[in-house]
Amino acid sequence: MAYGGVILSNSLSFYQKRIVMSSRVLEKNGGASIPHVLSVAGSDSGAGAGIQADLKTCAARGVYCSTVITAVTAQNTVGVQAVHAVPEDFVAQQLKSVLSDMQVDVVKSGMLPSVGVVKALLQSLTEFSVRALVVDPVMVSTSGDVLAGPSILSTFREELLPMADIVTPNIKEASALLGGMRLETVADMRNAAELLHALGPRSSAIDKVLGDKTVAVTTCKYNYLIARLQKVSCDIHVQVLYGCVVYDTGFSLGENLSQKGNVLVKGGDLPGSLDAVDIFFNGEHFYELRSSRIKTHNTHGTGCTLASCIAAELAKGSPMLTAVRVAKRFVETALEYSKDILIGNGIQGPFDHLLRLKSDSHSFRRKDAFNPSDLFLYAVTDSGMNKKWGRSMEDAVAEAIQGGATIVQLREKDVETRDFLETTKSCLVVCRSHGVPLLINDRIDVALASDADGVHIGQSDMPATVARTLLGPEKIIGVSCKTIEQAQQAWIGGADYIGCGGVYSTNTKANNPTIGLDGLKTVCSASKLPVVAIGGINASNAGIVMQMRVPNLKGVAVVSALFDRENVLVETKKLHALLMEAPSKMQ
Ligand SMILES: Nc1ncnc2c1ncn2[C@@H]1O[C@H](COP(=O)(O)OP(=O)(O)OP(=O)(O)O)[C@@H](O)[C@H]1O
Ligand SMILES: Cc1ncc(CO)c(N)n1
Ligand SMILES: [Mg+2]
Question: Which positions fall inside the Pyridoxamine kinase/Phosphomethylpyrimidine kinase domain (predicted)?
């Protein structure tokens, strides 16, 4: 059938232009388009909810997030102390700045403190097309403070909800939107979801469409498609724009887009419920989404997080129900991870979106990035030796530390990766409980996976600069160097120390030319990094190495002299005592 395909509303032609424009930009920069959520919300100074939660959620989900700030709140774990609404025209200005320049996939709204701000948002959505609108109808914080007053209700109901692809009220908000209806059970929540759907999402957009006899435009469709409605004769058909090519889907409006709106009534605050139950209703089916209720006080911002995660998943191309399920799981995981963290003195703390702050991985962490005096007695393990003497790696490490080792490196050339990772994790527990850093030889992947303190790499491993990029600024990187040039490269690459040797010949490294005491002296004198001497060092020659008193030499690294012995504890103690006695620059 004929559908003309040429009659475009202003917004669609704008969008078309933008597709063309952005493909030009992509061509020019050789870049790729990335999923993008625009969060239109309030700032929470405590950073658990609002804009800050949205930024962290999108970062955690791998989606870019731009922000339009509607209000600045003075807020903490106790409550909301003050609210400063951003002037409406300034909200409009921020919307224009972002939407006129960036290709936003999904808009997520949170705190909209006044009717004027809602109108500014609605106005921009008619000017700039996006694929979806997620509305979190924020009204009252869990602490009971009002973030958007009752005067907003009719605008929410009549103008914002109808534009939404999904609306995510909590129990109190659903009740307020439905004129104070009581919500006390899951059955009440279902009822509310149905009523809100009837009120709601997308319906008036469609009314507007039907009222407009020439052309109808809807702003979104998933999976990177933009849907467009067009009135042709008496039929309304849905057309889909993919890139700049127009397809007619053959669906008529009634069967398709009228089902588009979705409601999620969140039950985080449902009294007396053992599970955290949310009700999802898409106009056709109800889904009861359940997860176990995490016992924690750290739930501030769950609502904002859930909505921005839904937005992030939609931006990546997920269908709605999948996005909602992923988002619920994301909140549950973050709450479980953060249930014991302590931030603030109030009754409802924030949680950790990036799953990085937990105290047990930090309690014995080095405070400073790297302390060169840790190189004093450097124990390097060897699984062959431990096997020979019938002890586990964990026991060997524990004995070395008890004997005075100040840093440990796991040097395991012949173990399976899976076993190595498990061993590393157990050794980390031992090392952390003594505040001793644990490094991994060569295996950056194992260091990352186990969250060890760093790596020691050789000249044939990855360059220090690549290791630094992979490991980030906080991890320790040591590099084996024999020459001044290599030491210089290690410094440029962002290493923390160098291992210099072999000073004496050794069995632990085949075909490794020794550089002798002279070579060690030469490299140490030129090095900009602290140095640990390595290679054939034992109780009989450690004193000689140390008494050289060369600059930057901070300690000795030992393999066989500690681990190719029957009693690691005794040997380490012996070497430690010897090093302590020596009049050297090392300490
Ligand atoms: N203790 C909990 N354990 C597991 N999930 C929870 C818990 N509390 C809330 N949730 C989930 O978090 C999401 C947000 O729900 P909630 O009803 O708390 O929203 P909200 O009140 O708008 O949040 P807030 O105002 O704190 O930002 C829902 O999916 C809910 O089921
Ligand atoms: C700014 C802001 N937005 C949303 C909420 C709801 O949690 C909050 N407490 N603060
Ligand atoms: Mg809540």
Answer: 44-202, 260-346
